[in-house]
Amino acid sequence: MCQPAPACTCGSTFFTAHVTMKYSRFLTQVSRNRQPSLIREMTNLLVQASPELVFMAGGLPNAQMFPFQAGSITLKDGRALTIHPKLMMDCLQYSPTPGYPPLVKQLKTLTQQLHSPPRWAEMDLIVTAGSQDGLCKALEMMISPADYIVTQEPCYTGTLSILNPYKPQYLPVCGDQNGMCPEALKAALSKWKPEEVQDAEKDVPKVLYVNPNACNPTGVSLPADRRQEIYKIASDYNLIILEDDPYYFVQFGDRKNFPPSFLSMDVDCRVIRFDSFSKILSSGIRVGYVTGPKPLVERILLHAQVSLLHAPAMSQVLVSELLELWGEEGFFKHTEAVQAFYLEQRNAMMEAAEKHLSDLCEWAVPTGGMFLWLKVPKIHDTWDMILERALTKNVILVPGKAFMCDSSKPSQYMRAAFSIVSPENMDKGCRNLAELIREEMVLQKTVGNSD
Amino acid sequence: MNYSRFISKQSSRRKPSCISELRRALENGSPSLVWLASGMPSPEKFPFREMTVTLEGGKQLTLSKEALSTGLQYGPSQGYPLLRKQLKRMVEQWHSPPRWAESDLLVTVGNQDGVSKALDMLLDPEDFIVVPDPCYSDFLCMLTALAPQIVAVGVDDEGIRPDILKSSLEKAISSGSTGIPKALYLVPNSCNPTGTNMSEERRQEIYAIAQQYDLIILEDDPYFFLQFNEKQLTSFLSMDVDGRVLRFDSFSKVISSGLRIGCVTGAPPLLQGITLHMQASCICPPMLSQVLIHELLTFWGDEGFKKHISDICQFYKDRRDAMIQALETHLNGICEWIVPEGGIFVWLKVLHLNDTSAMLLERAAKGDVVLVPGREFMVDSTKPCPYMRAAYSCATPEEMMKGMENLAKLIQKEIELQSTHK
After folding, report:
1. Which of A85, A180, B143, B172 has its CA 20 to 30 A from that of A34?
2. Residue A49 near chain B (CB below 8 Å)
3. What ipTM does the predicted assembly reach?
4. pTM for this structure?
C-alpha cells in the first residue's frame, strides 16, 4: 500500500553531465530489423522534384479521379474552413508518413513554444493516427516478450492492452493524490543498482510509462518537484520515459501555472512524448503526434510506413487549416473554453459525489480531465459488484481491476467518467451507486468475506 | 477449419478491453441507465459544426448533424456500423463467398494496415510465409521486420507457379523447423509490381495447393476495381469453401488513398486478433473518413458506384494505352514488357543491363525520369535485377512520351557506362 510521500527536500534539481544516449539498446529485434520502404522514400522526393521530372515511381492513384472536389466546414463560432480543389487533393491523396507538411510545421512550432525541449535539435515530431497509435508503436518498438516495464498503477487500460500480450514483467509504481510516488519508483527499481543496469540490454527495466496530467484513471497530476525526481531516477537507471499526455490542455487552472512536462526537462534526450487532439478538437478524426529522440521516432516512422502509411490526410488538413485560422490566440482561447467546460463537469460531479457518497467512498478531487477515481474502503473488490449487479441499479462504472497490472488481485476502486454526463444524471448515478455499494456491503457480510 | 493453429502466440494473448465488455451491458440497459464508464470526450467542445462536400459534377452533400457528430467521435474498432453494412453487401454481391454466413468484415486504416495486422496475428518467428517473387515491396518490408521464414516462389505471366509452390512447401516442411507454413500472400489482379493477372485455372490450382498444405490465403486486391476487361476474374474469396481466405479490399485507387479506408473479409476467428490489435493501436479507423465514404456510397447507390468504376477503368485504360505507345515509340529493343490488363504498373525488363538500381537511384533524377528499381521487389535484394516498375497513373501522355524518351537515353548511357567499366 502506497504511503503518502514526504515533502521533497532535494531542493533544486541536479542532473548528471550531458548524456549521449545509446538508443539501440532500447530496441526490440523486430524494430532493429526495420528498413525504409523505398517507394515511400521515393515519393518524398516528389516534394523537391524539378518540374521536368517525370515521376513514375510511386503507385499514386490519379487524384483527378477521386470523387470529392471541394468542401467546406462551418465552425461553431460561425466561421468557415474552405477546402478548395487543390486542398481537397491534399485531403484525398497519399500523404508523407511523417505527416502533412504544414501541420508538422505547426505542431513543431507549438511544441517548441510550450515545452522548449532542451535538446530540440536532436528530436523529431511526427503525426500519428491518434496518440495511442504512437504509443502502441513506441511500445512495440521497445518491448519484447517477458521484458520489464515500469508503469504507474493504476494504469490506463489502453496501455495495458498493448502490453499484456507480451506477458511483461510489470514493475508497478503506486501513487497518491499527487500522482506517482518517486519513493515507490525507487523501491520498484531497488532490485538493481543504477550502475549495473545503465548499459545492460537484457533482463533490466528500460521503459517507464507515465500519464502526468489528469491521469487516467486517477484524475490527478504530478507536481513539478515529483517530475524532476522521477526524471532523475529515470536518468540514473537509463529508462526511456513515455510521457502520455492526452489531457495536457484539459488541466484546470491557468496555463501559465501548468507544471513543466517531462519533455521540457529532457536534458538527456530520453523522453518520448505523446500529444492528442482527441479531447479538444475531435477523437474520431484520429490525429495525434509524437515527439522524441530522432533515432526512436524514426523507428516508429518505419513501422507506420509499412502499416497504415500515414494518419488520415483529410483529418490532418482540417486540423492544420483550423490552427491556421485560429492562430495562437484562437487556439488557446478554445482550449481554455474546453477546460472551463470540464471544470464545470467536475464541479457538478463533486457535488453529486459529496451528496451521496461521502460516507461510502474516498477520492482525490481531479485536477483536470474527465475521471473520478473512487475508493470503496468497505468493499473487498468492486469487480463483481459492477459487472454482475450494477446494471440492476442503473449505473455503470469501470471496476478498478481493469487498471491493474495484475488483474488477479482485488481492487477496491472504480472509475467514473464525467465528460458526457449531465449534472442531473450525475446526481442520479451517484445515488444509484450509493445504493449499490450499501447492498454490496450487506452481501459481503452475508457471504462472510474477510478483509 | 482449426483456426487456433494459425494464431501467433502474441495474438492469442490479446484480450478485449473491459470497457468493451461493459458496453455490451449498455445494449441491455434500461433507458435510465447512467453510463459513467467510457472515457469519451465531450463532443460539445469539438469546434466543427457542419460539413459539406462537393462531388464531381457539382452535387453538394451536406453531412447531417448526426453524421458529422459520428464522424468526430470515437467509433467501434471494427468500423462504422453503417459503412460495414454497406461494404458487406458489396462484398456479398461481387464475390458470393460460399461461406458468407460464417464470414465477417472489418474496416481497416487502409488495406495495408489490415495486411500488416494480419501478419502480426499469424506469424510466430519460426513460421513460414509464402510469397511470390517478385513481391510488393512494402510487404517485403513487413517481413524484413518480423523476420519469419520466407518461402519465395517464382512467377510466370500469371503469377505464382504451382509447381514451384509445391516443391518449396515440401522443402519447408521437411526442413525440420518447428514452424509451419502458415500463409500464402498474393496480389491476384494487376499484381504489384508485375502487372499480371492470375488466370481462372491458376487460381483454382493455387487454392487446391493451399488446401493441401492448410495455408491461409492473404488475397491482397487493391486493383480489383481497375480491371480493363469486362469479365471479372474469380476471387479467392469467391471460391473459398474452407474459410481460409483473408481478403483485403481497398478504396485507395477509386475513392481516396488519403482517407485511409480499406476492409478485410474472412473467418471471425482470424479477424478477432486484428480487431483487438486495432483496439490497442488506432482505437478505431478514422470515423470522419468512414462517414464520408458511407455518405458517398449512399448517394451513388449501386448504379452510381458502377458508373464511377467504369469511368475510372476507362481513365486508366487510356493511360495504359498511352504508356504502351510511349514504350513502343522509345523502348523497343531496349526493354521487354507485358501489356497490363488493369491496374497502374508496367514491369519493364532492360535487355542489356544486369541491374537497374544504381542507374535509377543515382542517375535517373538528373535524367528527368524516375522508376522503381526491380531489386526492391525481389525477396533476395542482394541479387542484381534487370527490371524496373513504372507507374502510369499520374503522368500525362505527353509526359509519358518525354519520360520514355528520357529513359531510353538513360539506359543507353548506363549500358555505355557499364561497358566502360568492364
Report:
1. B172
2. yes
3. 0.95
4. 0.95
